[in-house]
Amino acid sequence: MDTTSRLLMLLEVVERGSFAKAAETRNIDRSVISKQISRLEDDLGVRLLNRTTRSFSLTAAGAEMIKKASELRQLLGETVRLAENYHQEPRGVLKITSSTIIGRRYLQPVINDFQKRFPQVEVELRLDDKLVDLVSEGFDLAFRVGEPKDSSLIARKIARNRLLILAAPEFIQTYGLPSKIEDLIDLPAASYSSTSLRVEGIRYVDQYGLPQEQKIKSVFRANDAEVLLDKTLSGTTYVLAPAFIINDEIKQGRLVPLLTDIKLQEYSAMYAVYPHRDLPVRTRLFFDAIRDHLGKETPLWESNIPGFEHMYQG
What we know:
The chain is built from eight helices and 15 strands. It is α/β, with parallel strands linked by helices. The radius of gyration is 24 Å and the shape is elongated.
C-alpha cells in the first residue's frame, strides 16, 4: 500500500468515526488499518492521530492531512470520470442507493434492461431506508423522496409524488363513507413513523386557499410504506399514502380513494442525488434510463390510479 492509499484510508477512518467502522466498510481487520495509519505516520515523520483505547483525535498535522486527502480523493475521482468519458462503451461499477420500495419496484427493472444494453457495467444496489454518505461510501447515485438538505450534493427532480387517502371496502362497510375531512377525526388510521418523521395529521388546503391540518387517530404506526398498505388492506384502518407505493390495489377494487374532492398539500417529490456534476457516461445513461422509465410528465405510478388526475385538486 502506497502513501496515497494510506491517506485515503486515514480519511475514511475520520469520516466513519472509528477504526472499527472503517474496517467494516472495507471488510478487513481493524488491526490492518491501525498498522497502515502507523506506517503513514512513520513515512511522513509526523503524528497524525492522538489515540486512546476507545477513541482518537486529530493532531494539527492530522487535520491538515485530512484536508489534503479530501482534495486528493476528489482529484482522483475527477481523473477516473474524465477517463471513463472517453470510453465508447460504458463500463465499470455503478453504485446506487435508494429506499427499499423504490429499489424493488422502480430501479430493479431499469437495472435489468440497462445491463442487457451495457454488459460491461457492474451495478451495486444498496437498499436502505436510512440516508448514507454518498461521498465517503463512494456512491454514484441516490434516489430519495424529498430534496436533500446537504447543499454540497446535486439533486434533480425525477418525478412528482402526490398523496391520497385510502381505505379498503371492508373499512367503509364498518365505518361508513366519510363525506368531509372532519369525519376522519375518530376513525382508526395507519400512519408513517420513523426517527426522522412522524405523520400525525393530514395537511390540506381549505376553500379559502389556506393551509390546514386535520389530526388523525393513529392506531398503527410503522416506518415501512408497504407495511402500512398491508394494514390498510386488512380493512381495519385508513391511510394517507404517497402515490408511488400504489400498484394495482385500486384497479382491483381492494382499496378506495376517500375524500377525493379536497386539495391535499403536495408531498415530497422523488429526486436523483449525486456528488459531482461531471457524471461518468454510465451514470448519465442510467439517470436518463430511469427518467424515461418513470415518465417525464406523468409518473409511472399515477397510471395505477384510475382518474387520479382529477383527484385531490380541490
